[in-house]
């Protein structure tokens, strides 16, 4: 049997807000994927990946996982010595879950108790999220476990609050003029420093107030209207969300995106928002008229991820 592929993920809504208990909506993105493989480690990429896996396995040996979620570390270490590496085209620092896919792949292959995503209940998802948080914290210092959970489940996931997640159906794609798309900022974003900026901002009472009273309200309304396919109220809330982020998340928006972000708000041709923690990587775009938005965003690399 060939090893399963683990896809990247895109957090459509909830960046930063989920730290403060907002809702989040995340979808798998099959353009990027990764899988565990064996090789003779002839290339630098394979050698580096194998070495990283070795260091990661040392970390996994030390953490205390719940009884039902034990990993077979001996088997993992044996495989690493035989040339195991993670073959992935998921870009790092782009907000699409590169470490999440790796964690999901390791959990799937080496967990002592085997599961299938279809069989996992809502309560099971909650427990799995906690375990994935422990497994991924090696890469980020602290992890919510959401990224690996999405990569593992390969389904859209609604983050209801800090502790609860559920599987959800997003409206079926249609060949309309509207689109959700990614813009490549052309630079890599580092999650750690961006999160640091956010926590610094949280110390300010005024920022905390507007985050709770405005950002989280617009964010949750976007999720609600998108899932119900109510596109007019969706875009109304999206504009407010995009404007709020432009005002308050300026340090997280790559400088070469500022003018394009502003142009979208002024023309109403499209709206932009952060994809993940920002600082670089991808930016998310939403437009009712993608051909028009595409023209206005000439010069940027874009990828359509959803049509409506």
From TrEMBL:
UniProtKB keywords: ATP-binding, Kinase, Nucleotide-binding, Transferase
Record keyword ATP-binding present: yes
Domain GHMP kinase N-terminal: 84-153
Keyword flag Transcription regulation: no
InterPro entries documented for this protein: GHMP_kinase_C_sf, GHMP_kinase_N_dom, HddA/FKP, Ribosomal_Su5_D2-typ_SF, Ribsml_uS5_D2-typ_fold_subgr
Pfam families per record: GHMP_kinases_N
GO MF assignments: ATP binding; kinase activity
Protein name per the record: Mevalonate kinase
Organism (species): Halpernia frigidisoli
């Amino acid at each position: 049997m060939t090893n399963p592929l683990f896809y990247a993920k895109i957090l459509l809504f909830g960046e930063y807000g989920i730290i403060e208990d907002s809702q989040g909506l995340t979808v798998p993105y099959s353009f990027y994927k990764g899988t565990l493989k064996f090789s003779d480690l002839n290339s630098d990429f394979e050698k580096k990946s194998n070495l990283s896996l070795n260091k990661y396995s040392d970390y996994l040996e030390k953490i205390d996982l719940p009884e039902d979620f034990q990993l077979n570390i001996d088997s993992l270490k044996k495989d690493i010595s035989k040339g195991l590496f993670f073959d992935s085209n998921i870009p790092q620092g782009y907000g699409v879950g590169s470490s999440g896919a790796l964690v999901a792949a390791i959990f799937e292959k080496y967990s002592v108790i085997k599961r299938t995503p279809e069989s996992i209940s809502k309560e099971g998802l909650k427990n799995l999220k906690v375990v994935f948080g422990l497994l991924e914290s090696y890469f980020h210092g602290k992890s919510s476990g959401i990224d690996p959970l999405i990569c593992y489940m390969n389904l859209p996931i609604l983050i209801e609050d800090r502790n609860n997640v559920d599987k959800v159906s997003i409206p079926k794609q249609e060949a309309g003029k509207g689109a959700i798309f990614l813009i490549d900022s052309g630079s890599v974003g580092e999650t750690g420093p961006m999160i640091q900026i956010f926590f610094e901002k949280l110390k300010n009472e005024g920022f905390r107030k507007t985050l709770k009273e405005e950002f989280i309200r617009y964010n949750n309304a976007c999720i609600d209207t998108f899932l119900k396919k109510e596109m007019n109220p969706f875009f109304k809330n999206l504009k407010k969300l995009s404007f709020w982020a432009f005002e308050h998340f300026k340090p997280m928006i790559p400088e070469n995106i500022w003018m394009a972000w502003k142009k979208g708000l002024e023309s109403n041709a499209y709206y932009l928002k952060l994809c993940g923690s920002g600082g670089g990587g991808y930016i998310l775009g939403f437009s009712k008229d993608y051909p028009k938005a595409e023209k206005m965003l000439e010069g940027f690399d874009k990828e359509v991820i959803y049509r409506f």
